[in-house]
Amino acid sequence: MRRTTPPRPIDVTAAFPQLAPLARPAIRLHPRPGSPTPLDSSVGGPLLWPVGEPWPYCDELHEWHDSELDEWREGPNAMLPVAQLYVRDVPVLRPPAHADLLQLLWCPFEHEPDYKPPTKLFWRSAAEVTDVLAVPPVTSAVEYDEYVPEPCVIAPEEVTEFPHSLQLETELRQQLEDWNDGQESGAAFYKHELSLAPGWKAGGWPPWGLTDPVARNCAVCGAGMAPLLTIASKEWHSRQRSWVPYEDRDIAAVAGSGMENSPGVQISGGNHLQLYVCPESPEHPHVGLIQ
Questions:
Q1: CATH says 12-290 is which class?
Q2: What is the pTM of this model?
Q3: How far are the Cα atoms of 8, 70, 111, 143, 290 from residue 201, in angstroms, in the given order?
Q4: What residue ranges of the chain have pLDDT lower than 50?
């Protein structure tokens, strides 16, 4: 499967050379319905999980109905696979030296205090997994079906991103705002068409909107955290049609096709979940932020 993002309408670095040093690679994942295996990069697919390694659980209390016993029960909850990414497919991941595979799981509940699904990351060497767990534990409790991703294959594609205007110096931001006013699309032209790719992606620059940019620092070493993964509620929306891949143009024009959200994931009612890792050591605790 291949997906190709059209070129940006304008080369923004020609108009603003100051942006050139701020360019970053991002890899759009382009999840689409499929039947991935543990040997594939995927969203919502099966994980290359070692038989002898304990499956992660969310230790918060959860309540669910046991249909076999016809009674209500409570306790920890088996976490759900969200994404599995091989470095061969997504080279911007920057894993630890021993690893070539990233696995992300979460609990399908919006837990306090920040009301987002708690996540766990695992870096591993695929070659070291000789016996793969065939049937993971059942996730007994699901608060929102929108946190249960549909199995999708991915079509990784590298694009170039520039910072959200809120992350730019004041003078450059003002210049961009004045320049935007002269564009056909108006004041949000840079934001929607030139800076940040929508959808699921690795690396790049983080999206903002619910809050101004928030500095995230590693709790272990104090280093500034780097964007790892953006989990999005949509691949595109009405303000970002230029980002629709060529291969999806026809079906994207069909109302109700669902292509704009193949995994069926909705983050906190339609936002993004950003995951950040420490650039000094990806094995230090990661952090998440909803935007």
A1: mainly beta
A2: 0.93
A3: 17, 42, 24, 25, 15
A4: none
